[in-house]
Amino acid sequence: MSEPIIQSLLDADFYKFTMGQFVFHRYPNISVVYRFKCRTKGVRLADVIDLGRLREELDHVRTLRVNKSELHYLRGTNEYSERMFKEDYLVFLGGLKLPMYQLSAENGDILLEFHGPWAEAIYWETIALAILNELYYEATTKHLSRFERECLYAEGRMRLAKKIKNLRRHPRITFIEFGTRRRFSRAWQVEVTRTLAEEMPSEQFRGTSNTKLAMDLGLLPMGTAAHELDMVMSGIFSSTDDELRGSHNRVLREWWDEYGDGLSIALTDTFGTDFFFRDMTREQAFAWKGLRQDSGDPIECGERAIQFYASHGVDASKKLFIPSDGLDIDKILAIDAALYGRIGLSYGWGTDLTNDLGLKPLSLVVKAVRANGNGLVKLSDNLAKATGDPKDVERYKRVFGYAVNAFEECKY
Amino acid sequence: MSEPIIQSLLDADFYKFTMGQFVFHRYPNISVVYRFKCRTKGVRLADVIDLGRLREELDHVRTLRVNKSELHYLRGTNEYSERMFKEDYLVFLGGLKLPMYQLSAENGDILLEFHGPWAEAIYWETIALAILNELYYEATTKHLSRFERECLYAEGRMRLAKKIKNLRRHPRITFIEFGTRRRFSRAWQVEVTRTLAEEMPSEQFRGTSNTKLAMDLGLLPMGTAAHELDMVMSGIFSSTDDELRGSHNRVLREWWDEYGDGLSIALTDTFGTDFFFRDMTREQAFAWKGLRQDSGDPIECGERAIQFYASHGVDASKKLFIPSDGLDIDKILAIDAALYGRIGLSYGWGTDLTNDLGLKPLSLVVKAVRANGNGLVKLSDNLAKATGDPKDVERYKRVFGYAVNAFEECKY
């Protein structure tokens, strides 16, 4: 191993730390299992990625510790609320060593799991994805000649230049770089994000979800919560159907208790958007800053959000709607054309930003699959993104009144 | 200019920020003048350093701003006290642009001054010194062949290795890297400091005075106050002899008000150590953590400190004594042999650490020379380090009861 891919535990999405503190304060010892999955059909990942290399990279991550400067940086983060990271959490983080992984291969698939207390295992997700992604592209491009490799980066730069040119023509479009988990490589993410910071005004390019990159480049670290929060909480509170159904709003209430309005962006689709809008209360509609949409049709969801706010007498144009599902510039422009002015908009732009060099991107995920001994379920608004054992999925569909039948292959 | 020497306003000594906040809170608009001086005899700096290059470097510094991550880092610094940097100061720092400089050459000397409100001009000192030093060595080594240049660094590494070997034999010696102002180059300071962090236990290598290096390497940023604090304060409070004499203890009291015990290391020699030990009160002797010694004989000064503490019934072994004047390994070992166990020791090791590659180091300083319209004076325990107009020096000698006649050419 020349230079390890992950060189800092902060080379991870910011939401891992915002959720991480929530978990540390409330449910640190809930035992969880996270599992890696490649959603892209026909890719035999275990035949491409060398498992020894993968082991080396994962082992290296377990030698990393959050250092003094990184703790200073997090302690000093005040854009969302004063002292959003509390001292007890920072002490914990300073001593954190990531738990062991379980790795094997079967029929061309890589089987990778992380077991441990939620407070510790939570940090693997985006780190493992970034490693798997980089190793995959390293392996698939290693046959390239020097010049072919230069052409690959040239193609990436031309594509990025085209995006920037397009965005400059639409200065009202604001976005966040969300592509850590799917980046072509760490170096390429650095280049893309640095370029955006240099070329675009900060009113338009708002920041990055990557904590270390935000720290290194002086950008705003951005992110709030992920599906895993709803999912694990539903695994903890699932003894009765009512408790299971109630777990969703419990997340909203406890999240508010932890951070107040600073991080009050709710994810709409864990158990389907229908349920979400039935479940969010009028008071929450007023109080929370906005919503993040991560599956289904973003314009349709935006329209429903506008209706939802209107039905509660809330001015939707004062709320934020953040599409983050498989965006590219055309989608962004279409959403903007449909919704601009009626609801606040910002875009969480991932794979198409940090892995757009002309190679086919993979749809890799690390999902929480068990908590507290229970199988976990995500329904989402696209059944291609649903996870969980069929029996559990049936129960969740029933409990959450889920009636979606949409299925669309994940582009990313 | 390929890569600018100074790439961050935090590439400066930490004490500039601890003093900077003190000044911002109390005396922001006092007009001050800082002046560059080369104390090394026989060096015609203006014949060596290209003034155009120097201008480019200084101009570049004026384009720099303290960025979001650097503010996070400072906000999160909590080793000395909780929230040692207050929000009003961080807001000021986030908007800071360094004031203009005045540059000319005369008879081979570089005349460089910084005029401005104290709150802004204070940040130039170590930055300007680092630039001048690096440009000097760049110019004096540009004739070297590739191999000769490699040999220069090889010599530097051998000398560093020897120091490390020696220090490992004396694990009770703890020290801080203090060499920003006299570094051979930024890159060399990074290499030396990184190497020390990797090779020495953190109990022995305690940190660095360079804020950006501390941030980048996850080390403890260290530093408290400099002579300029006593000097400028004496310029502000100098209308009567009593007020002038009282300005010294006023600094101690106001510094304590600003930071409490966290940064309570007093500098002993601004107006001579005799006066210092007459002036520090019993209560201050008890409360303050310790002393920094920056001129005269360190062992003699240490002995006096031990006596001073004893005379007030203070256990000197619980206090910290930090020699920081022209140290090298032999001096450190000699001080250790004489004082260890009787008073706490840590060493501020500068020039000999970051500029020891076999070339002759320069003794460059940037000193506050005027404040509030008054000429400033430093006496110190070595008249070679004294500064000020003769008339002012005479007044200060009289007011502070100064009776030293020692004169020793500054090694660094």
Strand content of chain A: 5-15%
> What's the multimeric state?
homodimer
What percentage of residues of chain A falls in helices of 4 or more residues?
40-55%
Q: How many strand segments of chain A?
A: 12
End-to-end Cα distance of chain A: 28 Å
Query: Sheet with the most strands of chain A?
Result: 5 strands, antiparallel
Output the strand order for the largest sheet of chain A: 2-3-1-11-12
What is the radius of gyration of chain A computed over CA atoms, rounded to a whole number of angstroms? 20 Å
Low-confidence stretches of chain A are: none
What form of chain A results from the Cα inertia axes? globular
Structural class of chain A: alpha/beta
Annotation field: number of helices of chain A: 18
Query: What value does the average pLDDT of chain A take?
Result: 96
Largest interface: A-B, 19 and 19 residues
Order of helices and strands of chain A: HEHHHHEEHHHEHEHHHEHHEHEHEEHEEH
Descriptive overview:
- 2 copies of one chain form a homodimer.
- Helices cover 47% and strands 14% of the residues of chain A.
- By secondary structure, chain A is an alpha/beta fold.
- In chain A, strands 2-3-1-11-12 form a 5-stranded antiparallel beta sheet.
- Chains A and B meet through helix 4 and helix 10 of A and helix 4 and helix 10 of B.
In short:
The structure is a homodimer of 412-residue chains. Chain A has 18 helices and 12 strands.
